[in-house]
Amino acid sequence: xxxxxxxxxxxxxxxxxxxxxxxxxxxxxxxxxxxxxxxxxxxxxxxxxxxxxxxxxxxxxxxxxxxxxxxxxxxxxxxxxxxxxxxxxxxxxxxxxxxxxxxxxxxxxxxxxxxxxxxxxxxxxxxxxxxxxxxxxxxxxxxxxxxxxxxxxxxxxxxxxxxxxxxxxxxxxxxxxxxxxxxxxxxxxxxxxxxxxxxxxxxxxxxxxxxxxxxxxxxxxxxxxxxxxxxxxxxxxxxxxxxxxxxxxxxxxxxxxxxxxxxxxxxxxxxxxxxxxxxxxxxxxxxxxxxxxxxxxxxxxxxxxxxxxxxxxxxxxxxxxxxxxxxxxxxxxxxxxxxxxxxxxxxxxxxxxxxxxxxxxxxxxxxxxxxxxxxxxxxxxxxxxxxxxxxxxxxxxxxxxxxxxxxxxxxxxxxxxxxxxxxxxxxxxxxxxxxxxxxxxxxxxxxxxxxxxxxxxxxxxxxxxxxxxxxxxxxxxx
Length: 478
Prior knowledge:
The protein is an alpha/beta fold. The chain is built from 15 helices and 11 strands. Helices cover 44% and strands 12% of the residues. Helix 6 crosses helix 12, helix 9 (208-220) runs parallel beside helix 10 (243-253) and helix 14 packs across helix 15 (451-472).
């Protein structure tokens, strides 16, 4: 491709993205294609000769776009937010154009030093303890695995990297914790049988007394408590594990404390949520995702550690061909995580923080929490719906319940209700199971979501329930 063709389509793509930002609400949020539909439209073999960009661009619009789920739609209330913003997209464009491989300081000094500075900005914005050092990981799953590996090495006196892991190391987390913890436990070699799920209370937060009892029982059995993973904002219900109590237990028994605030941590930038991370001074490691709720496109996960030398000692492999003259003076972030190769992810985050400013980011986060509160008020004021969990920030868990159905009937009905809601194409919600009860989740966090989008969602929900009642006569019995 010559420069002029690149320029032509570069302008065209940017124009298309700018229009997409404005028009995304006109797309059905979920794709209507069936499994295999997209693949059936793609050749089974690669093209023997190069094709012109006009053909490729047309195929993107005709084949790929119909199979896209539109996470940036203002009616997106599913799973969790995965935001972008114009500033972030422009930063990503420059990152792709530069094409730097930022594995060590010398391969791009600006990438390393900007990452160091921007992570310090994030630490200040969240009110995390001074002295924590940050690095950008791709996702919270990778950050949690990194924490589990460091905890493993710390617990073994840095012997398990050489001799393998002993079979008696234990990891503890809430019964409501994210599935990435179990996956990380498997990958890190602890074994899923050594992951101890701690019971939760009525608010779905970890019970500290149950944690301490589990640690004591394991010590009495000759096992080695290695790591506790506490969650600030579980995916199912945004439950907040009590960090101060958990932290004191971890300190008492010398157990690594990793804090997973991937979804909800962003809310801590607000002064009124300063208590959200109370107890973070006990954390040995901490993660939250700017790519969820801080307008920075995927991937961008901020991981902080209290003692980076433990992380580096766990991760460092130093072959001769990677050594540079500046190694002793700088942060080589290849030693701060699993990957050797690293993108210049700090650039887009820098763009976002500078373009919005801390006050602008606070305004958006505060708006989302307010809108979630507005929706929760509608649920509480309705005679047909009920809240299923505390609304701690921007997630509302609810279900239909007329007070005369069995739990089995209610589970069937609410599953039907969610399906009907999502068939509308204008809103998208997902579900979870809380205490055995089918629960509909509404996660408010899309950059463009406004009050009228909450009102539209409420009307869709009510209309969908009305249609189910009309079609079944007695909904939830079939």
